[in-house]
User: What shape does this take?
Amino acid sequence: MFAVFITIACARPAISAEPLSFPPTSFSILKPDTGVAIGRARYRVEPTRDGGILRGENGYFDGQTDVETAHIEIAADGGKPKLTEFDHTYYNVDKSILRRGHVDLKSGAATCIDNSAGQKSVQSDVLTIPDDTWAGASILIPIQNFLRAGDKGITRPLHAFGCAPSPKIFAVGVNIDPGNAVWATYGAEAIRVEVRPDFGVLNFVLAAFVPRLHAWFDPNDRLAFVGDEAARYYKGDPIMLVKKRGAEQDASRREK
Assistant: This one.
């Protein structure tokens, strides 16, 4: 069950769908148990004629990097945003590929690559893709929309793509806390959201064995995504992303 959730827990910073925009934003990458910084992350959305492309780069102080892209389309009539293609590639220090997850949501073609054991593993499949399927950072787009709709204290269903280790689509439940609280790591008030796989009637039995993804949004900054705690990838170590605030954010932009 741990392996199943880790494929979903790669979820990273979200973008706004009204309109589809996200200014370049910097995050610190921390170890959740100690709060020690282990890297930096940078996310932005590049507009396209039919929507936008979310791009994220995570750089670790040991030299490893991640690059994530999510192609998002918005219907011409102003309909809901929809993920159409997703890729998340993890690189070793020497820039060789450590892992990769890719899915074309229009055709259903998906591939998962894992070189972590020293022997290349490539698993491909053609999946049936529900309309509400998201992956990586893009899964937080519908979550922001739930928040805008005032959906607090309830559970919302979604689907998520992930590698576990083969390509899979999972049903997930989005649980939004009924009230705000100060998130000490961010240093300000935030709304906490929990995302976990939905195993139906088995939820009660499996709940104690499935780790949770927590994400935080700032109610005083247009529900901006400000951080999360998850796993880096399938069976990977847990990491925490925390948005840099004020002078830290400005300084990070100047460094770029």
The chain has a mean pLDDT of 82.
